[in-house]
Amino acid sequence: MKLKLASLLMVAGFGAQASECGTVTIADMNWNSASLIANIDRFILEAGYGCDAELVPGDTMATATSMIEKGQPDIAPELWTNAVQEAVKKGVDEGRIDYVGHSLVDGGEEGFWLPAYLVDKYPELKTIEGVKQHPELFEHPEDPEAGGFYNCPAGWGCQISAGNLFNALKLDEAGFKLVDPGSAAGLSGSLAKAYERGEGWFGYYWAPTAILGKYNMVKVDFGVKADKEEYLRCTSVDGCPDPKVNAYPPSPVYTVVTKEFANKGSDMLGYLNKRGFTNADMNQLLAWMEDEQANSEDAMFYFLETYPEVWKAWVPASVAEKVEAEL
């Protein structure tokens, strides 16, 4: 109730401050972490910098295209640029858009994961060689004689990369078989069920996600560094005949702005350049949203009230005072 009331008061309180930087449009992407960041940007830009900030619906491809071709919206708070790499590069080269910082400072993180309580009991499970010694700890749901590896859902790009790495690591020779989770909900549900029962689970997952905020999981060390060229050549290519052992390279996740917004002034760009979340913090925020069935605006208030030491480092003291006053 406090958060809902605060939302109503926020609308009433911003009108008098909205002349300093004019109207700013912010892409409210259709996944939780991006929507949360968009709401945080709106609040801080309005309360701290006097903008008239407006959220507009967005997704990766449509938002990037619109910013490049139409100059709107002004800000894409969380753009996974690997998905639109060529278009973004062209937009930057042509002076239509700019990178201004990493919204996820660790980058998007992918890997093969297992519960920390198993690693506490069997320290060798930190490495893939240790995992291959213990297929019996990860019973396949349809074949009790085999170890189960939960793959990414069918149709997702990560199904290809995880399958290629399964083959490169020769997990089948170690006694493992792939498990098709059926969907994202099936994948997260299998992990949650195993964790809450204290059972074995081994599979693909990514961050930031609510599930890795709720459960203490360990990413398995493959013993090699990420080779981006190899990832593009084979790891991520369907049907690659000769996959090699490779680590997942971090996915760059940027805040991108239009050139027109970039020309409005360095103060706001300074904020956006500093504003970034670790995967650990974002995992916790997404888990809170899921547990509380909260929307992105609720989570924005929760973040600003609970993590002042994080967001105050993004802005000058005078701006932080204005944001606190509005809260």
Automatic annotation (TrEMBL):
Residues 23-305 form the ABC-type glycine betaine transport system substrate-binding domain. It comes from the Bacteria. Residues 1-18 form the signal peptide. The keyword Signal applies. The keyword Lipid metabolism does not apply. It holds the Pfam family OpuAC. Keywords: Signal. GO terms for cellular component: ATP-binding cassette (ABC) transporter complex. InterPro entries: ABC_Gly_betaine_transp_sub-bd. GO terms for molecular function: transmembrane transporter activity. This is ABC transporter substrate-binding protein. It comes from Vibrio albus. The lineage of its organism: Bacteria, Pseudomonadati, Pseudomonadota, Gammaproteobacteria, Vibrionales.
